[in-house]
Design goal:
Strand order of the largest sheet: 3-2-1-4-5
Structural class: alpha/beta
Largest sheet: 5 strands, mixed
Helix content: 25-40%
CATH class of the largest domain: Alpha Beta
Shape: globular
Length: about 350
């Protein structure tokens, strides 16, 4: 069936149109993916107009799934379409785009598209799902090579995979997916507002207006930009000019950022023991940042693999355990979350 996945990022809305089906092993698959970018520069109403216009070009869609920044009032599918339920509505507090506060994503899209087969979730959930499926074939092949006749079936292996996806954008979030089922809890996790250990050498104030020392306040992309600016540099320069990464002031900014994200990786590891932690967006593409994050994680875990606790095989290769997000289209800045949202659309339609 034809499905659409929508990922609402800081600067753009990524859309993935694909065919969803299950293979002979009952593993969900997306084929013939097409990716569309819609700018997110015209406020909520403008963005919804452009998104609806793009989706209406595909009249055969059977399900639409949206991953967005939060927090949301409700993402409980049982409340979908019920008046006053708050399903798919952005909360009025602590959203980073002022003119999106309190807006009803589900109600707006359902009304404009004249359909109710639409689901809303948080961005990191769909991204974590997307990573698990996108990496499934290579990871399962590696599992079979390492275990031989003791290898699990594809379905068993998929069910046992837990990924953590960290999104470092204007906010900061982390989502956990066990198999293809995201961990939601009472509402949805707000990992970014976990209280962190404040580094004594960090002189910048928290960027979060609610908490004096939470991870989002210390390590969101906004906080990192402020750190770079204080050192006399801009984010675009640091990401696009490898030579700038050799400057001590830039290295210091990356190290400070990684010190905080390393704490998030520790918290995700001790709470959920994932098979992999994936870091998305601009910093997930920085080899220097990933290097420092792994280094701090190793230090926090005790400084030697013999002292790691918890200890399990995936942790023994930090290059694999803490990695940047998959590039789903070489040369184009498309988010794995759009792929994951399209996958989620198929799963939601099956379950409906």
């Amino acid at each position: 069936m034809a499905v659409a996945g929508v990922y609402i990022g800081d600067a753009a809305i990524n859309i993935c149109i694909a065919d969803y089906a299950r293979d002979p092993d009952a593993i969900p698959r997306l084929t013939k993916p097409q990716f569309i970018n819609v700018p997110r520069s015209r406020g909520f109403k403008g963005a919804m107009h452009d998104l609806v216009e793009a989706l209406e070009l595909h009249s055969n869609l059977q399900a639409i799934y949206v991953g967005t920044f939060g927090p949301l009032v409700s993402i409980d599918p049982k409340k979908r379409g019920k008046d006053g339920s708050g399903y798919g509505q952005l909360q009025r507090i602590n959203t980073h785009t002022q003119d999106w506060q309190g807006e009803h994503l589900y109600d707006t899209l359902a009304r404009k598209l004249k359909r109710d087969d639409i689901w809303i979730d948080v961005d990191v959930h769909v991204a974590a799902r997307g990573e698990i499926l996108h990496q499934f074939d290579s990871e399962y092949a590696r599992h079979c090579e390492n275990t031989g006749e003791a290898a699990l079936s594809p379905r068993e292996y998929l069910a046992g995979q837990a990924y953590a996806f960290i999104e470092i954008s204007n906010g900061l979030g982390c989502g956990i997916s066990q198999g293809l089922s995201p961990w939601r809890g009472r509402l949805h996790p707000e990992f970014g507002h976990s209280i962190c250990r404040h580094a004594a050498e960090d002189k910048l104030p928290s960027d979060c207006h609610l908490h004096p020392s939470c991870l989002e306040g210390r390590a969101s992309l906004r906080a990192f930009k402020s750190r770079l600016k204080a050192a006399g540099h801009e984010l675009s320069q640091v990401l696009n000019d490898p030579k700038s990464n050799e400057l001590e002031a830039v290295k210091d900014a990356f190290r400070m950022q990684a010190a905080y994200i390393g704490q998030l990786c520790i918290n995700a590891t001790t709470a959920y023991s994932p098979a992999k932690i994936v870091i998305g967006d601009d910093l997930g593409r920085s080899s220097l940042f990933l290097h420092y994050t792994r280094s701090f994680f190793h230090q926090y875990m005790g400084g030697s693999r013999e002292r790691y606790f918890p200890s399990y095989p995936d942790l023994m290769d930090l290059q694999r355990y803490i990695a940047g997000a998959s590039q789903i289209h070489p040369g184009k800045r498309l988010h794995i979350g759009a792929f994951g949202a399209a996958l989620s659309a198929g799963l939601a339609k099956e379950a409906a």
